[in-house]
Request: fold
Amino acid sequence: MDATKIKYGGAYNTDLILGTYSGSIFSPAPAATPFTHTSTSVTIPTNIPETTFFQGLFSTDGGTTWLDLNSQTPNLTAPGLAVLQTQVMYGHSVLNGLVLTADNWSYYNGTTTTSASYTFLYKVVIFARPGQGDVTPQPVVQKVNFNTKNNYQKISRDSAANITLPVGTVTVNVAHNLGYIPKIRHYIEDFSYGPTTGLYDFGFYASQYTLFNCSIDTTQVSYFFDNSTGTGPLTAKLYTRIYYDS
Amino acid sequence: MTLKVSKIRYDSAIAGLGNTTTTSFFFDIPSHTVPVGGATAWLSSWPLDNPSAISSVQINLSGLETLWRPVSGSIALKIPYSGTQYEIEIITYYSGGRFRIAAYMVNEIGSTVTIPHIIVNVRIFQFNAPF
Reply:
């Protein structure tokens, strides 16, 4: 049976939402000097004594435009320059909480620098990771939890791998053998390379450190870590959730 | 009420992330020369049914590799080419009801570099969350 054709099947695992949250963070203007930023965080209590998976959206224009976490709107007023650091929100899950951080960068166009304050609106959802323990599900703001007309994302397999990075390079492969490129979500936890202990979207690391990469082919998900110039050993748990979606 | 959530496949009290839609498209980055310290940018956009849905994005740099790479917001990739390498940064965002993607080439190599023709294939998975 082709799992991707089934709208909902109780035989398949799906993401299980543990709670949804919305709110705002006020981010003051950074100094109007090149490459400076303000970083403002808020911790949302989840009352779950473990880390969880999460994903969310944020807006810096009052809710007109929503971006996925880790996204940023490039400033294209000077297209000859790659002005990438504007406003970005990202998160990490900790015990009993979800920490959201809003970074507000000054805009340097090569000649002058400007900055402004922003109010970041956010909407985030937390959902169960493999091996999640006893939790009290939080209310979600929707009357219909499941609708069989919708094609829910069915989980093909979950991988939770303990990885060790000595000084050098490491490749980690997670097999799926689906025969096509699947959709995935991936997270990394307790990685001493990162700014703070917690569970992060792997894409956050991939955007921060170009020597951490992930790629997908028709048989496996491959991770490449280059710690050649770092210290070691570093340890982490790498979560990979592979869906049937093609 | 507490639940051992990881043992549950389905519970009517717990919502799921669902209703996935997938959109595919591509855009061209022509072969060109980037001077030392220079950067060039390409921007493309496509309409989306529900810009406020959470998405997952994958890209494939056709002409350079056959793999697909997941992109979460933005990602910088070191691309090996002709014995050297350069950097491409991909940024995804929403604006005006459209999904937009920007690709930047940054030359930090120390000499003028010629970028090959690249086709950026893009896939977007969207799902509705109960916000």
